[in-house]
Each structure stands twice: as C-alpha cells, then as structure tokens.
Input
Amino acid sequence: MHELDKSKILIIDDSFVGQSAIEEHLDMEESVVISEPDPCRGLDLIMADRPDLLIVDVAYADC
Output
C-alpha cells in the first residue's frame, strides 16, 4: 500500500510502555503511526498532520 493511502494514527501518551502496547496491536501495513509523549506537541501534530485516529492518554495535568 502506498504511504499516501494509509490512515494516520496519532498516539499521545507519556508512557513508553503505553505507546508500545498500543503500537503492537495496530496494523502497520494499513497505517502510519505517530507517537508523541508531550501533549502540547501532540496538539501541534493534530493541527499539522490531521490524523484519521487519535489515541490519547487522558491523565495529563496541563496543556
């Protein structure tokens, strides 16, 4: 599958273990997965990359 045809998934989670566990269950052949530990940077990526799916850790203090 061509890179432009793949869905974009953005994972925003400050836990490397959490990011890895989620990535393990995603189909990398069908998707481009971007992981970001910083929630503020994650907001920038949402605006810039317009992902098809967001997976977000809800236990962040601020941003």
Remarks:
- The chain has a mean pLDDT of 87.
